[in-house]
Amino acid sequence: MSLDELRDLVIRHARPDATTAIDDVLVSRVEESTPPSSSMSGTVLAVIAQGAKRLALGDRVYEYRAGQYLIASVDLPVTGHFTEATPERPALGFGMILRPAAVAELLLQAAPGDLPPVGGGTPSSMAVSDAPDELLDAVVRLLRLLDHPRDATVLAPLVKREILWRLVTGEQGAVVRQLGLADSSLSHVARAVQWIRDHYTQSFRVEDVARRSGMSVSAFYRNFQAVTAMSPIQFQKQIRLQEARLLLATNPSDVTGVSRRVGYESPSQFSREYRRQFGAPPSQDTARLRAPAAAAPAAL
Q1: Which of the residues 59, 142, 149, 276 could staple to 159 if both were Cys, CB 3.0 to 4.6 A apart?
Q2: Torsion angle (degrees, nearest 10) of CA 122, 123, 124, 128
Q3: Range with the lowest mean pLDDT among 154-168, 176-190, 255-269?
């Protein structure tokens, strides 16, 4: 069974930082269910080999468990945690970072008619499906290469390409394919997301960000909400609060200074929104802030 072997491979190769010797390939082992925490999703394929995880993106909640996979096609702020993980039965996961250039190359080389038609509308940036046997088999073969470093140099890129092909032709192919299309609505939103992340301390007019993303204001609002489950202003707030939490990890006593650095003019508003987001005011969140951050995307 592919899932049984996948569990064994993840257990054998899991490291504390979730990285592996193969570029863009991650494996994780989590031995306890922790409270939900906020981080960035990454652009990633995540396959659960054992256990279950729940992610919240805006007002949407995604749950996936053993034998299922999640696709995240835009790097967005999410809140998540493993819901089934114990030392005796740890949560085990595989992840592969999705690169737009690799998806685009695959789409360009596909023959006419090889790709199923894409429905109308803008897909969400996240989706969950049952993992077909062909996808699980390719994931297992990729992780087997960790035991054969000489073979991995040549074969790992080929197997990663096969995994991408299984994704773009699979049930959630529309989500993955838009990642590689330079003129897709998802790519326009991704440009806006990146601009807001780079300038999160600044106030902005939505009209200006819409123009930067190459969309009309009405189309921008509609597509941004479809992809991120948030308005542009809500998205900026999420980025500000996550950045503040990172800064407070090293400056736990400078709440006012940190609130100003991330763009808040009112420290009291910052404290209210921080508590709403993380469940405790900044002054009481120091212990969690000092916990080591995981290297893997939140989806894994």
Answers
A1: 142
A2: 180
A3: 176-190
